[in-house]
Amino acid sequence: QMQLVESGGDLVKPGGSLRLSCAASGFTFSNYAMAWIRQAPGKGLEWVSYISLGGGTIYYADSVRGRFTISRDNAKRSLYLQMNSLRAEDTAVYYCGRDSQTGDGYTFDYWGQGTLVTVSS
Amino acid sequence: DIQMTQSPSSVSASVGDRVIITCRASQDFSGWLSWYQQKPGKAPKLLIYVASTLQTGVPSRFSGSGSGTHFTLTISTLQPEDFATYYCQQADSFPLTFGGGTRVELK
Fold first, then answer.
1. pLDDT in tens, A35-72
2. Contact check, Cβ <8 Å, B43/A108
3. Residues 6 or more apart from A91 whose CB is under 8 A from it?
4. Are B5 and B100 in contact (CB under 8 A)?
5. Which residues from A are below 8 Å from B29, CB to CB?
6. CA–CA separation, A69 vs A64, rounded Å?
7. pLDDT band at residue B30 under the 50/70/90 scheme
């Protein structure tokens, strides 16, 4: 059964750091590009970052570029998001999503349950 | 960047109603447009991709159409389990962008 499980969310002070993880199971992780998408409390969805199959191609939203780093370890079937210089506006539920790899754009066919990051003093 | 605008932001409907949600893009693009359903406290679920292709397991009462800058999601006969928030997403180019969401609520 296909599963994505995020972890690492926590309460952190502004300026602090956090590392999120997403553990994949039930599919061949190395065959799929992955992404992080977030949702601030009561708000809509915001794409954060994307990483290709082997990690050689990476994209970031302007709002996080230079502060967040996406990475993956295919041997460990895991996706990561290193978050530095956190701001109050980074407060959100962070989801990892699997790119469906249909060849027709960047669509996310499976999502984890999310992990909550709260940035507050 | 391609900006996505959904309308309406919310709609009140009854079981059995036909509901149409619109998504407009700020510029013409490939039509790689996806629709997601999200229920409170849950992760989004993919419904439709490439504007009109139904994801496996999604009921046929959901349909998508459109091209260029104008796209629609139609729920032909609203069921109790369809009360949720729906998002469109352009899957064409980075930065990937979502519409603001449409909440379908019980009249």
1. 999 999 999 999 999 999 999 999 999 999 999 999 99
2. no
3. A40, A41, A117, A118, A119, A120
4. yes
5. none
6. 9
7. confident
Q: Which residues of A touch B45 (CB under 8 A)?
A: 111
Contact B32 A114 (CB under 8 A): no
Torsions phi, psi for A30 (to 5 deg) = -70, -10
Per DSSP, the three-state class of A29 is: helix
DSSP 8-class letter at A31: G
The sign of the dihedral angle between the CA atoms of B37, B67, B31, B90 is: negative
Residues paired with residue A49 on neighbouring β-strands, in sequence order: A36, A60
Per-residue burial over A69-92, b = 16 or more CB atoms within 10 Å of its CB, e = otherwise: bbebebeebbbbbebeebeeebbb
The span from the CA of B95 to the CA of B85, in Å, is 22
Give per-residue pLDDT as tens, A2-11: 999 999 999 9
